[in-house]
Each structure stands twice: as structure tokens, then as C-alpha cells.
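Hey team,

Filing this mostly as a record. A colleague (T.K.) asked me to run one chain through the structure pipeline before their review meeting, and I want the input and output archived in the tracker in case anyone asks later how it was produced. No errors, nothing strange. Just documentation.

Input sequence:
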Amino acid sequence: MPPTKLWPSPLPLWQAAPEAVAAGLGGEADGDQSALTGPWRLLLLGDGSPTRHLQSLTGIAVDVEVIAMEADSDCQQEAPPEVAELDQPLLRRQVWLRCGTQTLAWAESWWNQSEAERHLQERNQPIWRSLTAKRAELYREVDGLALVAAPLLEKGFGHPGPYWSRHYRFFRGGRELTVIREVFSPALERWLGPAQHTAS
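Output structure:
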């Protein structure tokens, strides 16, 4: 299926304070720091690769379906603030992440166009695999946590929102390479359990 046009970014309904995310304490959407359960906290605030997590959880290799990958000259309204640190001109890539028949995540990433040409030659390969080719050192910093909503995500996931989302940056040699936003399907509760603690 050929790539389509870029979708609007999901609308944030709630966002964690940056200092809470930096401390690994995001997830207090209802004012309670323990609202986000441990497995979901690890998925959203940990520095591991989501594609590896999804494959480990399901036992099925992650299939990346590119929705769109094109120049993005006017992203100030939708992009995380860290995108402003990337050199212009920018390119944005949007994908679905699937394990078998299950659509488990949606992601978008912003790149300097020359960096994208260097690192995204295989469009349907997970970004983590492209960036760590030849065992290149890479550093991930989680910058944001949010609950988001979008009709297109509801259709793609087959589950109503809102959805847990995070965004982070990849660095190499102290230099920012890309900013990535990921949104996770509630279907992951099959393996991780409920995302939030229920009131007793």
C-alpha cells in the first residue's frame, strides 16, 4: 500500500510535567503518581527500544508500515518543542507498528532531511535498527508523556482512546539526531495488564 499524506498529530488531552518525566515519575494523570502501573511505566518512561519490547511481549517480529514520509516545513503547532533543536529543513515520518495481525503502536519522527537520507534508507525498517547498525552508540532521552486522542488512531487500533503516548530524542556523540513520538494501543494490556491502577 503506497504511503499517504502526513496525518495531523494526535491531540494531547493531558501532559506530564517535564520535571516529572525527567525523574521517571510521569503518569499521574489523575493527580496520583502511582496511577500508571509498573509495566506501563517501564514501557513509557524507560530508555529501551519499543520495537524490541513489542517483539519480546508478543513473540512476533515487528512489521513497520510507513504511512507517510515527507518534508515538514510547518510543524510548530504539532511537534514537541525539542524539534526546534533540529537543523532545517525537516522531514517527518509516520508509521504503524504491528505484530502479526495486531496493530500495537503508531509513531512519528522528525529529522533533518540529510540525516534522514543517511539513516532511513530502508523505509520499513525500525528506526532503532537503522541507527544501531554496525553497533553504533546511541543515547535515548525521554522528554514527554501524554494521554492523546485522534479518530485515525481509534480506527487503526480498533480500540477507543485516549492512548498513552511519549516522545523522546536520540543522540549520538552528544548531537541530537531525531525526535520521536509514539502512541501505544490499549491492546497491550493483554501482556502488560491495565495501564492504570484502579481505585480501591
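Quick notes for T.K.: The radius of gyration is 16 Å. The CA atoms of residues 145 and 166 lie 4 Å apart.
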